[in-house]
Amino acid sequence: MNYWFLVFFISLLNSGFSQVDTACIQTRWISVKNSAENRVLFAPSTSILRTIRKKSHEHKILPFHSQCSFQRYQSSTPSPLMKIDSNFITYEDYLDTSNHIITIYVQSDVCLVDEYGEPLSRIEADGSITILYEEPEVYRINLDQLVELRIQEDRDDNGEFVPTKIGFYIKDKYDNVEELFWIDLARLMNDITSTKEYPWYAFLQNREYVGFQYKQVSCYDNTIR
Description:
Blueprint lengths: L1 H13 L10 E9 L5 H4 L5 H10 L26 E3 L14 E6 L14 E3 L5 E3 L5 E6 L3 E10 L5 E11 L5 E8 H5 L9 H7 L6 E7 L7
């Protein structure tokens, strides 16, 4: 009898009865508070938001909201027969009124379309065609009200977690935490060559921030828990 019990027990082990992997996480989200340990990410003088402002105004990155599943980037192809402009706004001489205030204009790069899905445009006096886009969304951010960053980390091919996206949160007038937007970190860091100018760069790359994990995705499905 003991022999058959042993065979049954071993067969259970071989079938994976006790082989459940509870530790494999593919994606996780870290809440990073405005504390002394994370000062590099929040201090007005070194704020990552200044870099985000510049790249947003150059149309190199597109801030997005957490409710959006993806961000669309599309480039326009000039016609060989005519000059095509767009109503994108430029910010060559933009100045903030305070070192603690940053204004970010988020210009959509998806053009307006008509009922047939064709881009909306207007013909200018010189015969050129202007492709029309939505008016930019404007964020006027008081850096002293920034209370929390949320960082998405993904497991890379080496099994290490790397920060891939970052979200910014402030407190509204009712003392509730309110999301501003998220940024794709790969796009933000894409053409940065001299990292010494950006104290936050190594701080993020080396995951030196202090925070707590508030949700995760398993390696085996796409359910956020």
